[in-house]
Target: Multidrug resistance-associated protein 5
Amino acid sequence: MNGRPKGERKEAEEIRLEKGMALLENSLTQEEFQLRPRSGRGTMARSISQSIETQKQITRDLKPQKIRASEASLLSRASFWWMGSIMASLYRDGVRCLFYLSWNKEDEADANVSRLEASWDEELRSRGSGEASLARAMISAYRSSLLRAVVVICVTLSFSFIGSACILRLLLDHISDSQSDTRTGIIFVVSLIVCELLRSFTFSLAWSHNYLNGMRGRAAAMGLLYKKILRLRSLKDKKIGELVNMFSHDGQRVFEAMVNGPFVVGGPFIFLAGLVYLCVLMGAWGMVGIGTYIAVFVIIKFLTDGIEHFRKLAIHLTGQRVALMTEVLTCMKLIKMNGSSSVVVVVVVVVVVAAATVVVVVVVVVVVVVVVVVQ
Model:
């Protein structure tokens, strides 16, 4: 802050004061703005001045903070230690500190949109608009981050396999042996503890990587969609319901794919390791267990297809509901407009009929008077 020019510091101070004033206006109740006869204007003015000074002091005490998720070290990212300062600010200053949080440049929506847009343009040039895939563009844009997440997940699965399948089995065999050595048992226990600690550490680190990738991917996809919609002059045959589905369901699908995708890549690794271990340990009976494992995966595949079918059906029904509500609102506006014009027409007709009736009555009266006079 001290290295900034005076103009920038003054501008930042003015922005913080404006935000503080906005918070003050939202926090003051309606009774505080009403002038009571007993208190007088002077008391009310002093109360507002004191509140403004207090808010200015609070605003001056708050300092801008960055969300350092991408800059944190491995230990800080795995333990989420980088969130400590933000949590402390929330506890100390309340939600006011959220106005001063900012992302790093590589985590902002603009940077991620530019990154995905460049990858998407490359996908269009190489494969054409008919065969271009957003999934390939997303993988190409975040290849390094996804590879890091996959490597961490493979390391996590390795520690899990070594701890549960190898070290734990050796420990159980050591316990069942009547002539076991205490020193060897201690080594097994310490090895199991270290293995579990490393597994927990890498597992938390993997989730941290995946959530950060999911946040970036969702921001990039939604930002790219916003840019596309802003360039369009009309939606043509698209409906509002389809856009709502894109921003809600499809955006969440992108996030879930970026979060859970690396775990799918690590599945075959642990499957092959378990297959070899069971065949060496149990022989042919190990293949029976592997066959059961594969059968369960086939059942899960059918269940997943059913869930996907019902999810698409729900999305379709949501689109129909939004389209129907839009049509109803449009028709209500049309009925209202036509109703107002119909009222005008009815009034004009009534006036014309009344005038014609008056004219007829006058003519009849004149005729009667003339007839009476003539007789």
Remarks:
- Residues 284-374 form the longest helix (91 residues).
